[in-house]
Every structure is written in C-alpha cells, then in structure tokens.
Design a protein that fits this description.
174 residues; mainly alpha; 3-stranded parallel beta sheet; 8 helices; 3 strands; 9% strand
Length: 174
C-alpha cells in the first residue's frame, strides 16, 4: 500500500502534469514567515491547489509508516526531509521576514506542533539558511524569484502576493 508521499510523487511526476497544463509556484520562506497563511489566501482567491510539504510530511508521520518515523525524527532535529520530486516552477514566491519576527510568530501560534519550541525553531532557521536560501538564490539567477516583505500585516502581504499573481497572469494570457 502506498503512502501519502508516494501518492504525491506519483501525481507530481506522472498523470497530473501530463494531463493538463498546471502552473507550479514554489512558495519559500523561513519558518513562521507566513507561507501557510498566504497559501490559503492564494487557494481561496486564485483557485490554486496547495500541496504543503509540511502538511504532507505530518500526514505521513500519522500514518505510522517507517518513512513517517524517519520523517518525525528529522523534524524533531530541525532537519529538512529530502525530496525526490523535481518540478520546474513558473516562479518562486519568497516570503522575506526577519528571524526575530518569525521566531515571535512561531512561539505565539500555539498549534501544538513538536517543532514549535525554541531549540527546534533555531535549528529550523539554520536549516532554512543552509537549504532553502541556495534554492532561492538559484532561481533568482533565472529571474524567477518574486520577493515579498512578509513582516507586514497579513492583509498587506496578501495585497503584494495578489500583485505578483496578477502580473504573472497577464504575462501568461498575453
């Protein structure tokens, strides 16, 4: 029986992308930068499907699989879980936010997540700097990064997000 991660990999690498033209947008930012909040807004406003790596990994943990146990241990250690899926995005939405603001948000969100404690949060910041910033820099050299000031209030951040998506839609339609 397949796992949640297997199903997503199959969809990402196979039938879903082969059957129809999809717009893939990578949403990156440090822990607590507002990725989940803004992705929910994007789904509601633009009708995108949101595949959250974090949510999928947590579902795999709940499944009780061997992969789930391995993933849980990596998350507790603040590590990034390796991905085998290779998809080229139309653009990368980068939520830029100061470390102090992200830390404040994470400590105040009270979602009961194992990785929302100060030691793990600090490890996650380091992992973000080591793992995600090189990805952002790579796509920046290709002109694909759209940087958003994520330290602003949620509504203001989403206005900036909408502007990026609307500008992209005009390019695609034209």
């Amino acid at each position: 029986m397949g796992t949640v991660v297997d199903a997503v990999n199959k969809e990402a690498n196979g039938s879903l992308l082969a059957e129809k033209k999809v717009t893939v947008v990578f949403v990156l930012g440090g822990p607590g930068s507002g990725k989940g909040t803004q992705c929910a807004n994007i789904v509601q406003h633009f009708g995108f499907t949101h595949l959250s790596a974090g949510d999928l990994l947590r579902a795999e943990i709940k499944s009780g699989s061997t992969n789930g146990t391995m993933i849980q241990n990596m998350i507790k250690d603040g590590e990034i879980v390796p991905s085998e899926t290779k998809i080229e995005p139309e653009f990368v939405l980068f939520f830029d936010c100061a470390k102090e603001e992200m830390e404040r948000r994470l400590l105040n969100r009270n979602q009961g997540r194992d990785d929302d404690n100060i030691d793990t949060i600090r490890k996650r910041f380091m992992v973000f700097l080591e793992s995600s910033l090189p990805v952002i820099n790579y796509y920046n050299t290709k002109g694909k990064v759209r940087k958003i000031d994520a330290a602003k209030p949620i509504e203001e951040v989403f206005e900036d997000v909408k502007a990026v998506f609307l500008a992209h839609a005009k390019v695609v339609v034209a």
